[in-house]
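[User] Could I get a sequence and structure tokens?

[Assistant]
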Amino acid sequence: MNILLTKGESFMRCALHPDREATGICVDCGKALCQECSNKFKPVLCPDCAEARNKQELKKVVTVLCISIIFFIIAWNIEGSSGFSLSNRYMAFRVLAALFIAGVPWGWITLNKLTPNVFLVLPGIGWIMYFITKLILSFIIGIFAMIIKNIYYIYKLVKYVKTEKYIKSHL
């Protein structure tokens, strides 16, 4: 941590503005920050740490969105190449089927957050019934969870771009 004290001072100086008294500390790296720097980001971050956090968040958002697209494409091709071969007039059913299949991982993730760990002690038949029930619920919940999560991740992506522009303009 960079603490700049001159003779007789009992306070830290801002790492970015040495002529100002520090009023905050970056929660990631511990750099001292003045009032202006402390108010730029929530939580209190220096520009370097804010940029690092944004890049990390961007990787997560892009990964999740890519997974959604990949599952949709796989589901679309499985449904289209199977014996179900739907004509163009049933395209809406094909899209809906692909969305349901692509939503299964999202439903599974959502159910994992909601399911207590008490199911870990089930006997063999209990496990089979648990997984069948969870798979069926994943189809139902998955499409909604996928849509909600992807809207949220698109929002985060837009927020990332805006924050990145803000960081670059204030460096």
